Amino acid sequence: MAYKINSDACINCGACEGECPSGAISEANDKRVINAESCVSCGACAGACPCEAIAEE
Fold first, then answer.
1. Average of pLDDT values for 11-27?
2. Which of helix, strand or coil describes residue 16?
3. Is the pLDDT of residue 1 over 90?
4. C-alpha pair distances (Å), 37 with each of 3, 8, 24, 48
């Protein structure tokens, strides 16, 4: 199951993007987004998020 970023809680710090082993996270409209097709559901991004803005979909 892919992870999703809550755009209301995301502060666009980029901590999640550096932790993603599959490169599924990018920036769009001043927020981070996860490409569900590339996400390997490892949860590394959720663990790195200081705002707890990332959860399983």
1. 97
2. helix
3. no
4. 10, 22, 8, 20
Token reading at 1? 């199951």
- Find all residues with CB under 8 Å of 34, minimum gap 6, and list them: 2, 3, 4, 5, 20, 24, 25, 45, 54
Give the separation between CA 5 and CA 35, rounded to whole angstroms: 10
Mean pLDDT rounded to a whole number for the chain: 96
Helix (H, G, I), strand (E, B) or coil at 39: coil
* Tens of pLDDT, residues 26-35: 999 999 999 9
